[in-house]
Specification:
Strand 20 and strand 21 form a beta hairpin. Helix 11 runs antiparallel to helix 14. The strands form six sheets. Strands 15-14-13-7-12-9-8-16-17 form a nine-stranded mixed sheet, with helices on one face. The chain contains 15 helices and 23 strands. The chain has two domains: about 190 residues, NAD(P)-binding Rossmann-like Domain (Rossmann fold, 3-Layer(aba) Sandwich); about 190 residues, 2-Layer Sandwich (Dihydrodipicolinate Reductase, domain 2), CATH 3.30.360. It is α/β, with parallel strands linked by helices.
Length: about 500
């Protein structure tokens, strides 16, 4: 375990580390080998540029922005105008066909359900990729991107910028130094959603704007009639396209326990929520994930741990000894509470402002690599740096897919727990094989389509419309690995 820490988390100042930063003419490596010298600028293409994609690009302007792609040209207009020399595309596939030989790296900041298919194709072409959070829409997609990154030896980064921040580093330093003892429970929560959730699918069909290619927005998902409620941005709450508050915020909040506690696959998951509709994430939810004991670290053991997630106004109990009158939720939209055998560690979103409930301030050694200006472009530029290094000596960015992939599986598992809560049991998970082991062949599941609750003359009536019963095992398998719409296909899973 100590060996792994030194490789991944310590600042490499050795000759090997320096070799990755040596300025070498690009002719030595050659573009065909997928290597770019630090003396050169990357040619970056971006897919999904109207929201966070625009923010990410603004932090990559040291490089060449050569191609821009979006399905909504009205939403993307500001970014098109800002980088007026870049070629413009509706379809990322045509962009890669046209410019594949001249593109070094691809930024993906589309709706969740298209992250994987775009990033996967780019990686198979040898392109470095930066993918917004959540990394993918499903467990299988996360596993695929993890393995593709390893196979093609490209530099990768998920857009959870807090992974490079000072807070996460300090949380790890304290926990690994044994400052709070063994951690057996973690509570995490957010104030999201701030977009509509808990909605029934609209029955109205709106006219598709001329500036929106609806078919390309749908991409690999099941075709739906267009309604303006879906996009832009509000797609987060719809199961077809997003992953709700979990997908939006868990990559910022669950990353601290994932890294600090060396988590991998959970063995048990359980979910509950407000009214669960078949089309839209609920207004509030609670997820419990149980992780087995891991290999002990030099200064602290890693026993079995429960990780709890709350959102939509649901919150954990206040820790014993938490100051009276002090609000549990601080600024930043999220909080994490590590319950240790010696002390309790509390931090905000991105691991910001960590503190111990005892009031003690640890003097732990700083063992994690620091990223300058992490929250102000440093996260993106750390990836740019990695793109320019040889795979043999590359210092991995702080959320490369070897870590971001398994961590995002944790996020996707939370979605599974919520969508399968109608089975009314703790689900047992075989992470290596990506399957539940205690869903019977004959079990069925129903979900609410429409809530017909009404009050007439002061009298309530309850009238829910349910889906027909579906085979629970088949339903779970589709959530784990999506069946893509005809014409859309992922590359094979590397062995």
């Amino acid at each position: 375990m100590a060996e792994k820490i030194s490789r991944r988390d310590f600042l490499r100042t050795s000759a090997v580390g320096l070799a990755g930063l040596t300025i070498v003419p690009s002719s030595v490596f050659g573009k065909a080998a997928g290597q770019t010298a630090p003396s050169d600028k990357l040619n970056i293409a971006a897919v999904g540029i109207g929201g966070m994609g625009a923010a990410n690009l603004s932090n990559m302007e040291t490089e060449n922005i050569v191609a821009l792609c979006d399905v909504d040209w009205q939403y993307a207009k500001g970014t098109f105008d800002r980088y007026s020399k870049a070629k413009r595309y509706w379809d990322y596939r045509k962009m890669l066909d046209d410019m594949g030989k001249s593109i070094d790296a691809v930024l993906v900041a589309t709706a969740d359900h298209t992250h994987c298919i775009i990033a996967a194709e780019a990686m198979t072409l040898g392109k470095h990729v930066y993918v917004q959070k959540p990394l993918t829409h499903s467990v299988y997609e996360s596993r695929l991107l993890t393995k593709l990154a390893k196979k093609y030896k490209v530099a990768t980064q998920m857009g959870n910028q807090g992974a490079s921040g000072a807070g996460v580093r300090q949380v790890c330093d304290w926990i690994w130094n044994g400052e709070i003892g063994e951690v057996t429970r973690v509570d995490t929560f957010t104030d999201r959603p701030i977009w509509p959730q808990g909605l029934m699918r609209p029955s109205e069909v709106d006219q598709i704007p001329e500036t929106l290619n609806w078919d390309l927005f749908i991409g690999p998902a099941q075709m739906r009639p267009y309604n303006k409620i879906y996009t832009p941005w509000n797609w987060r709450g719809w199961w077809d396209f997003g992953t709700g508050a979990l997908g939006d915020m868990a990559c910022h909040i669950l990353h601290q326990p994932f890294r600090a506690l060396k988590l991998q696959y959970p063995t048990k998951v359980e979910g509950s929520s407000t009214l669960l509709l078949n089309s839209c994430a609920p207004q509030a939810q609670h997820v419990k994930l149980t992780f087995p004991a891991r290999e002990n670290m030099p200064k602290v053991a890693m026993p079995e741990v429960e990780v709890h997630w709350y959102d939509g106004g649901m919150m954990p109990d206040r820790p014993k000894g938490f100051p009276e009158g002090k609000q549990l939720m601080q600024s930043g939209g999220g909080l994490t509470i590590f319950h240790g055998t010696k002390d309790t560690l509390i931090c905000g979103c991105y691991g910001q402002n960590p503190w111990l409930l005892s009031g003690r301030v640890p003097n732990a050694p700083k063992v994690c690599r620091r990223v300058p200006k992490a929250m102000n472009g440093g996260h993106e530029m750390d990836w740019v740096r990695a793109c320019k290094e040889s795979p043999s000596s590359r210092v991995m960015p702080k959320s490369d897919f070897s870590e971001a992939g398994p961590m995002n599986e944790m996020v996707a598992m939370g979605v599974l727990a919520i969508r399968l809560q109608g089975l009314n049991k703790t689900l047992e998970w075989d992470g290596a094989n990506m399957r539940f082991t205690n869903i019977g062949d004959d079990e069925t599941l129903r979900t609410v389509i429409k809530d017909g609750f009404k009050i007439h003359n002061g009298h309530p009536s309850f009238d829910k419309t349910w889906t027909d019963p579906v085979n629970a095992k088949a339903f779970a398998e589709e959530l784990i690995k999506h069946n893509y719409r005809e014409g859309w296909k992922l590359p094979d899973m590397p062995r």
